[in-house]
Amino acid sequence: MTSIAATGVLRAPPAAAQQARNADTPANAQKLHQAAEDFAAVALGEMLSPMFDTVDTADGMFGGSAGEAAFKPMLVAEMGKQIARSGGLGLVEPIYQQMLRMQEGRR
Question: What 3-state class would DSSP assign to 104?
């Protein structure tokens, strides 16, 4: 969208104002909510990671092999995603609201 200033020159609206208008559309709101959920999933995965570092896997079914060590970060990340999808610790909605405020230029 463009606007005509007092000089009669066409000018594009400020990026922040355009982003705030874009956040109002359902598709963009959905993308923003998904980004908030993804961020919460990463945060939860980072919180879970130290817990899995303390687990002794030497006596487990796979014996703590290199393959198990390679796939452990993916397991933790997927657990974080699942926790965030199912409501998690209540992080998604506050993150989403803050992202909306940031797009509107408020803090």
Answer: helix
Q: How many CB atoms lie within 10 A of CB 32?
A: 18
pLDDT in tens, 35-89: 999 999 999 999 999 988 887 777 777 677 777 888 889 999 999 999 999 887 8
Tell me which residue of 33, 36, 47, 35 sits closest to 77, measured CA to CA: 47
- The span from the CA of 96 to the CA of 89, in Å, is 14
Neighbouring CB atoms inside 10 A of 64's CB total 14
Rg (CA), the chain: 21
Q: Cα–Cα distance between 97 and 33 in angstroms, integer?
A: 9
Phi, psi dihedral angles at 31 (to 5 degrees): -65, -40
The domain spans of the chain are 35-107
* Residue 12 phi, psi dihedral angles, 5° rounding: -75, 145
Pick the residue with more confidence: 103 or 17? Answer: 103
